[in-house]
Write a structure and sequence with these properties.
The complex is a heterodimer. Chain A starts with a strand and ends with a helix. By secondary structure, chain A is of the alpha/beta class. Chain A has eight helices and ten strands. Chain A folds into two domains: 3-78 and 155-260, Rossmann fold (3-Layer(aba) Sandwich), CATH 3.40.50; 92-153, no CATH class. Chain B has helices at 15-46, 53-56, 59-72, 74-106, 108-123, 130-137, 141-165, 169-177, 182-219, 225-234, 238-266. Classes of the chains: A alpha/beta, B mainly alpha. Chains A and B meet through strand 6, helix 3 and helix 5 of A and helix 8 and helix 9 of B.
Chain lengths: 261, 274
């Protein structure tokens, strides 16, 4: 498999008033083309930092990030990035937000709105096309963000806890949609979450991070067959075994960060 | 996050709710009318009994003065002069303020160089420039327009500039990652986000445009509402002063209302601005 994103010897430090904080260090990680990689770790372990670097919005303090073999030194227009924070344009209706990527490429309004409506429909947001983001709930806005990221079909998609605000049932529905889409397009996915079950359900490989400073504790391949039934897969014994194993890596970090908090 | 209201429900309000809302509104209007009637009656009663009319005139005398000006055609002439100065000053000031504010907001280098000069000019009470403008541009319309323009320019400029600095970097990043050109970022993220600030600047500058025009007229002119106030006061005509102030109040309120309506239609997306 071809490496698409490579993190080589990455460290990132932030200077705050209280001194220097190391978000992550000694990170060596490769994301292969067409792969679904999940990054799991306790909060504050630098998961978002890694995504920001792949997007070219942040430079590492040490090491380098490569995309298709070239160092990422400026905003990486090949990736679609769904950040943790809500970044919908508040003055645009839902449909115009979703069509934004296509609009920037100069696609005609009627065509791009058709694509936008299709995505909104798939996200269960039919009937909200002309609403403004301020009129939607937090969970609905997340789904609009997701539709916006997917609608212009970037080569790679970075997602930072995209479903954190959704209720458990809706989350499963979104997992199902996401996997269908991924199977159909073979888009490379880097998916950050703190939910181990979510990571195993979706990913080809799961990278487990330690608490701050974030380091890779383990990378495991998820050998569950595809297509996966997201609603039932957690009851699979193989799933349970893998969950146990990964939880072993995660537990220690989670306990220690819980102590700090 | 999910606790936010999903979508405003369709207006399916029962008749009793509509009726009680209307009753509430009538009550408010009734109170307002009551305050005006009581206030004017007290004024009328006090004038000539407790206080000499020379100081506070009286509503009836002010009304008579307004009618006299109206009959002679002077009222419209003065209003027209002041309004022309105000509107021209507002338009020129707002346009140049938006233009310069955006230019500096998008050119950080230029803004850094000019910063101390901007602060110095901004801190200066603009009205203090009136004598200079009258000296340069004469006692006619031009000096007042220039003064009003100057006052409005700084308010709109400063708000526009501050608005460009307050644009959320995350929104800009979203567009950059989508491959937006510099111009697309300006048009689709920066301008809409600054629009709210521009409107705020314009809204607060409307009364100042009027102040610029009126102060200019009071210093040197032979027409306009400012002149009317000055001339009436010079002749110890208190009713005349109040009558001119009354007209000014109405004009200022009207201008504010027009701007509020246009803001509502442009900033439809912003729920709280309504």
């Amino acid at each position: 498999m071809t490496p698409l994103i490579e993190y080589r010897g990455i460290a990132r430090r932030f200077t705050t008033r209280r001194g220097t904080v190391t978000a992550c260090e000694n990170v060596d990680l490769t994301v292969n083309q067409g792969e679904f990689l999940a990054i799991v770790g306790p909060s504050g372990c630098g998961k978002s930092t890694l995504l920001n670097m792949a997007a070219g919005l942040l430079q590492p303090s040490a090491g380098a990030v490569f995309y298709r073999g070239a160092p990422v030194l400026e905003p990486n227009t090949r990736v679609g990035y769904m950040t943790q924070r809500d970044t919908l344009l508040p003055w645009r209706s839902v449909e115009d937000n979703v069509a934004l990527g296509l609009e920037l490429r100069g696609q005609e309004r009627a065509t791009r709105l058709r694509t936008a409506h299709d995505w909104l429909h798939r996200m269960g947001l039919k009937g909200f096309e002309t609403a403004y983001p301020a009129q939607l709930s937090g969970g609905m806005r997340r789904r609009v963000s997701m539709a916006r990221t997917l609608a212009y079909e970037p080569e790679t998609i970075l997602m930072d806890e995209p479903f954190g605000a959704l209720d458990a049932q809706l989350r499963l529905v979104m997992h199902d949609e996401l996997l269908k889409l991924w199977t159909a397009t073979q888009t490379t996915m880097v998916f950050v979450t703190h939910d181990l079950t979510e990571a195993i359900t979706l990913a080809d490989r799961v990278a487990v991070f330690s608490a701050r400073p974030g380091r890779i504790r383990a990378i495991e391949t998820v050998d569950l067959p595809r297509p996966r039934d997201v609603f039932r897969i957690r009851f699979d014994p193989q799933f349970g075994a893998l969950h146990d194993k990964l939880w072993g890596y995660l537990e220690e970090s989670v306990r220690s960060s819980a102590m700090v908090a | 996050m999910d606790t936010a209201i999903a979508v405003k429900p369709a207006p399916r309000i029962g008749h009793d709710v509509v009726a009680s809302a209307r009753a509430e509104w009538f009550a408010i209007v009734a109170w307002r009318v009551g305050i005006v009637v009581v206030g004017l009656s007290l004024w009328e009663a006090v004038s000539g009994t407790l206080v000499k009319p020379f100081w506070i005139s009286s509503p009836s005398a002010i009304w008579a003065q307004l009618l006299a000006w109206y009959d002679s055609g002077d009222l419209w002439m003065h209003i027209e002069v002041t309004m022309t100065e105000t509107v021209l000053g507002f338009v020129f000031g707002a346009l140049s303020g938006i233009g310069v504010g955006l230019t500096l907001g998008l050119n950080k280098r230029l803004a850094a160089v000019l910063d101390p000069f901007i602060i110095a000019f901004y801190s200066l009470p603009k009205i203090a420039l009136a004598p200079l403008f009258i000296l340069w541009f004469g006692v006619g319309l031009l000096s007042k327009v220039v003064l009003a323009t100057f006052v409005v320019f700084f308010l709109v400029f400063y708000n526009t500039y501050a608005g460009t600095l307050a644009v959320e970097q995350e929104l800009v990043d979203v567009l950059r990652l989508m491959g937006a050109t510099r111009w697309q970022i300006v048009r689709k993220a920066i301008l809409p986000s600054v629009l709210l600030w521009i409107f705020t600047g314009m809204k607060i500058s409307v009364p100042y445009a009027l102040i610029g025009a009126v102060v200019g007229e009071m210093m040197a002119s032979n027409r306009g509402l400012g002149y009317l106030i000055q001339a009436s006061a010079g002749q110890y005509d208190t009713a005349g002063v109040f009558a001119a102030l009354f007209v000014l109040t109405i004009i200022a309120t009207g201008l504010h209302e027009i701007l509020k309506q246009s803001e509502k239609s442009v900033l439809r997306w912003k729920e709280d601005s309504v």
